Sequence to fold (680 residues):
Amino acid sequence: MSYTLQLWEKPADWPWPTTKKEADAQFERVSDSPPPGQNPKFLEWGRALQERYPEAMDVWLDGSEDGVTDDATLGFGINTRTEHWDAAFNLAWEQATRLGLNLYDPQSGVHYLGNGDTPEEPDLQVRRAEQAREAGDLDTAWAEYRHHAARGNPHAQYALGRALRFGTLDRRRHFELAAALQMMGAYDQATRADAQAFYERFPDDAKGRIQTLHARLKSASGSLLLSIIDSERKALDEAFARTEQMMLYSRKRIEASDGLEAAALQGHEVAAFQRALEAVIGWEQPNFENARYWCQRAVDWDHEPAKRLFALMHERGWGGPVDMALAAKWNAAAQEQRQQEQRQRQAKEAAASPGGLSLAPLEPAAHATAPVVWTGSVARDLVGWFAREGNPHAAYHMGTLDEHGRDGGAVNLALARDWYAQAAEAGHADATYNLGVAIENGSGGPRDRLVAQALFMLANTRGTTVRVDALKIAPNEQGPVRALVAALREPGRLRAVLREKGLQAGAGSAAGRGVAPAASAVAGAASGAAMAGLSGTDWGRAGGGAAPPQGGASPSPSSPPRPSRNRADEEDDEENGTRRAGARRSDASRKGTSVHLGHLGLVIGAASVVLLIASGKSGPSFRTGMYILGLIAAFGAWRTGRDFDWGPAARALVAAVAAIPLVGMAVCIWMLMKSFRGRD
Fold:
């Protein structure tokens, strides 16, 4: 039994048909046209089919059927009694689309057009996307859905919305965009009910944005529709990236936390994971229940580190009751996800390697968890877990805890120094500054003035909130300091530079903190991605920190429990773990002022001596004035010589200049004493 089909080509100057009626009309016009001669595309198409399924395809290309190959259409049949006749049909459709040819099925009246459309049969258009999805080729499935969505296919539009709602097809969630696409593409009663139920879960302000976005999508078509989808997805990732940079640049915890929450409420799993940390260190009172809530959201969105943290929360009772069964469940789920991801990496590497040879490990390696010494403090242990996972904000917070001995831990300057180094390597501005203070003072390890100055400069360019504008780098030291800044800011290089110079903390190594090599590698990879470089000039902050998210995303389907009150910007240096930073800040302010007073005092003192010698007057008021000016000059010379970090020759010259106002002061005293004797 043969299933017959017709192959035909649309003239280049004809538009693609959009309805079955238009397709039927074009096919009739092509069929009734004079024979154009043998079409080379027909030959290429037929050879591909006969080579693959010779037993199933009855294609007349050899001229045995008089006049068939010269017609504007080519008739062929598929033997339905063969084993692979359905696969042969799919291949015929695929090859026709590749060549821009059209297939007409007279049995069903369906046209399979060369642009991928099947008028009045939209479910058939996405058939290839569904097949690619079932085969695990998610990129091809996504591309196919996009292609047909741009052509107005409601099945493809609804499928894109579902993918962005549930995070399938290897794409990140975007709840508001998903709701708009589902409403736009709902094609029957079931899909319309599903789209409406999802839409009703949003708060009123989010519903307004969804309606606006839905109107924009409905009015767009083709590449413009895809551009709107891509821009909305990109905006979410960029808003999260700006929030991450803002958290690295300053202590604006409230703005950064709001940005994290906005991204998390759109389905951004990494933002939800970091929001769990902010519930502990970003508020006046840690909210461990809130941390578990956000961790649960990240788990629901299939974030593997969140699964491990969620297991630990159930094991230790952080933010809720202890449940060892759930802890074991989520540990197993995280391990299975790691193994699955590694198998996928192996498959991709094997496909890209010569001869299919993969360099990935043959057996999936289990995640190397770091041993933890439990202190009994939930805040310290929970934040310590984040820090060992490579989070720079948690590492900075742990540094302040160990520097001042808070939350159940003893003072450990070496450990604090190492935490600051980890956070600074990831681009954390205030951790970079605190590390510079530790290296300048020798806290927790050796000291090095040039490295400390380089760290202060790097912290300044990263946007630290502490002033570092009075470092007084000598001209002969600017080159070495500049080179150190360039080396320290390279992604993943800061701690290596410190090790090369012997400045690492003796007791604060990764092993001392209980960090396994794999965890250190994770931290290094994360720091490389988040590294903030110098901007504008190497010696000053140009532009400041990153701007906060503009028009950030808003709450989505369910509103989380919010902490009772926000943490205001802290000015208390002791509370923020920056007592040394505050001391240095105030000292820097005094030094910046005293240098100018020293210059002024030195000039006034020298001028007083000149006036004294030139005038020769001996009035009491003049002599008193000269005495006061001499004291000012002496103070100015002393301060000027003290503030400048000069060599021996320069210091000798300053000492000689300082002697001038001292001589003037001595002359003033002698003249005053002589005047007093004359009165007697």
User: Anything to note?
Assistant: The CA atoms of residues 55 and 82 lie 7 Å apart. Residues 579-615 form the longest helix (37 residues). The two ends are 144 Å apart (CA to CA).
